[in-house]
Amino acid sequence: MTTFRAFGILAAAGAAALAFGAATFGPQAQAADSFTIGLSNGWVGSEWRTQMIEEAQAAAAAWKDRGVEVKLVIQSSDVDVQGQIAAVRNFINQGVNAIIINPNSPTAFDPIFAQAKARGILVVATDAEVSSKDAIYVGIDQKGWAMQSAEWLAKALGGKGGIVAINGVAGHPANQMRVDGYREVFAKHPDIKILNEANANWDEAQGQQTAQTLLATYPDLNGIWVQDGMAAGAWRAIAASGRKDIAATGEIRVDFLKAWKEGGYNSGASVNPPGVMASALNVTVLRLQGREFKDGVFGGVYGNAIYLPIPFIDNTNFDAVYESVKDKPAYHSVTSTVSVEDAGKFFK
Question: CA-to-CA distance for 82 and 80, rounded, in angstroms?
């Protein structure tokens, strides 16, 4: 158990939170000892996604100790939106009890999710929110994730300076929410200027190349806001430039944390835990058992989100986090999972 697994639950929903009961989206209560759940992962471009699936599999296996058989049917491959819709349709045709999806679009799944609801199938999105009222979301607030690290960068720069942003896949719902988040934060700091924004597709090598180009183009820049694994590449570019005065956001993988420690980086990183799908699975099984959600538990931009905590790493807590994961494989990401007991706190 890592330090960050101790971050249990409970991110409060806003005043506009909606009460989603059984009549809204839920299935009829199933037999409490056996469920089949389809997992849809429409992009496999990082080890983070692999870890996400592995942690969901571990969560399903752990339910056996509670006398509950959770069978997973997994679709994990690079597909476009239509390909992922086809995967969801296959799950429906197989008669699964629930579908957990890391979606490639916030809105395109509305019709197919309605079909799932009509068949009594619970749909739970994770990692990226969806607009469908026939689904719920269990995961972090991606906009809040970006705002947290952007606030750190603004503070690290003393509220002034020129920065660049290196983003993920253009058009991806989680990426867009993150862009909206950092823009909102930096707009509150008139002396911080966003010099450029570029996409590097959540790819470490592209992140390094993009950072090299931006460092050469803007030799006086003071900071870099960069997402996920691209941060490792960006920091290699910073090191190669010889610049010791740049602050930049970081990554949560073990290999990057080791580089952070050795290089003495001025960095901070919001944690988007791969355990979000495992957290969503624990919520899903409890719902399938017939539990009803508490009033006011949902919030978010679409009113159907259960937000999970977003741990943060910077130089104030770095040593404790590093000690908890330093013996993990290089590709392992700092993670957290909402336990069954904590997931139960969302229910009456």
Answer: 6
Which CATH class for the 3-139+273-304+336-346 domain? alpha beta
Handedness of CA 46, 242, 320, 343 (dihedral sign): negative
Q: How, if at all, do strands 98-102 and 34-41 pair?
A: parallel
Query: Please, what CATH class does the domain formed by 142-270 belong to?
Result: alpha beta
Output the pTM of the full model: 0.86
**Residue partners of 264: CB distance under 8 A and separation at least 6:** none
Q: pLDDT per residue over 292-324, tens digit each?
A: 999 999 999 999 999 999 999 999 999 999 999
The whole-angstrom distance between residue 248's C-alpha and the CA centroid of its chain comes to: 20
E-only strand ranges, 151-304: 161-167, 192-199, 223-226, 247-249, 267-270
Q: In the chain, where does the domain assigned CATH 3.40.50.2300 lie?
A: 3-139+273-304+336-346, 142-270
